[in-house]
Amino acid sequence: xxxxxxxxxxxxxxALLHRIATAQADGRSPSFVAAVQRxxxxxxxxxxxxxxxxxxxxxxxxxxxxxxxxxxxxLVLRLxxxxxxxxxxxxxxxxxxxxxxxxTIHQLLGHSAGLGAESPAxxxxxxxxxLRPDLADVLGDQTRMHPPGRRHHYSNPGYTVLGALxxxxxxxxxxxxxxxxxxxxxxxxxxxxxxxxxxxxxxxVHPWADVMxxxxxxxxxxxxxxxQLWSTTADLLRFAAFLAxxxxxxxxxxSVQEMKEPSAPPESGDWDGHYGLGLQVVRRNGRTxxxxxxxxxxxxxxxxxxxxxxxxxxxxxxATSGPLVGEVAAELVSIVAEAEPRxxxxxxxxxxxxxxxxxxxxxxxxxxxxxxxxxxxDRGLELRGLRGDGRGARFTARPDGTxxxxxxxxxxxTLRIVRNDDGSVNHLDVGSFVFTREPYDPAxxxxxxxxxxxxxxxxx
Length: 460
Fold this sequence. Notes:
By secondary structure, the chain is α+β, with helices and mostly antiparallel strands. It has helices at about 10-25, 70-80, 90-95, 105-110, 135-140, 155-170, 175-185, 225, 235-245, 255-260, 325-340, 355-360; strands at about 30-40, 40-50, 60-65, 205, 210-215, 230, 275, 280-285, 285-295, 300-305, 310-315, 360-365, 370-375, 380-385, 395, 405, 415-420, 425-430, 435. It has an eight-stranded antiparallel sheet, with no helix packed on it.
């Protein structure tokens, strides 16, 4: 039950319903279900169906296809955080004998290992996994289509290999590890590799006639870590909340953030997004969305979350093709974010004053370019160009008295305070760049020195 403060306006709710009704009708899907979450609370559920009085709800399972990959990636990052592997490790170190042992775990997570997009015939999504009993049956004879690390090339077999890696290192089946390490801690009790009633049936709709054909729902066997899961809108919104902030019971926030960072150069011409580690990050309707899409014969799924707006949306359809669920889920986020913009938290001063850091705030100059240094929470610093340009970043304090860049141009770079013999500040060193209190301050250690005659006018 949502509180009055959490409920959406009637106009917003109608706009959301109109969008999915249009998607179900125009996409000719037997059913369509969606849900929206704001500030961690479910604020809307909606569905449409071709069967009167029998529309799915937030507890109805649909197959989510490649959204499964995000869950598999979380399990691999857990192994890394426990010190059991490094993402730079070659696969052979932990899972020998695959024939693709030189590719790294990072490359597999980000689809840059150069492996094939699909397993050898027959079409793995519509045939039982028993036809592919070993990894060799999944990878085939031509294991690499491209040199590892050179480009993004989506690979379902790559995530099958990651599932085998998880099983080898945990000594338990992938689905068992997933349930105990992710699904149960997050309360996702209606998510799993096999359907449990109530669940939707998968259908193919004829492209030129309003008739349907049932799709098989095969157990994918070794391919399960790439696309086996069934889930509900309620469960995936719980997962969206985890992807927004992390959860120490499953994966710390820093590792979840790492999943969102670009892992490989995008395909040529694809400048509206990138692939991280098991997560897609795209630009839609002027905002950045994090999540994943998925499909299997008979089903389409999408989950998107906007951190800026603190809004997430899930959309499912039980049709092989037709509804553009990824676009619909993105538009559901936009409808809520634009109709009811996020109200910022009240401004509050810092809990205490650090006089030494306060003295550092204000203007600093890189050559003649003006920048502003601000003091933020937890002894953090923020450096931004005075006119909104330049190489800005936020920095977090380290125990040794330096700061490390969190984002922007200086991500991972070190900010140091360089002092004179008397303890006064000479300049800031940010990744070797010198920032001074005055443009080319003659009293500061400016590389190359400063002309002794100083600034001059045209007539000098």
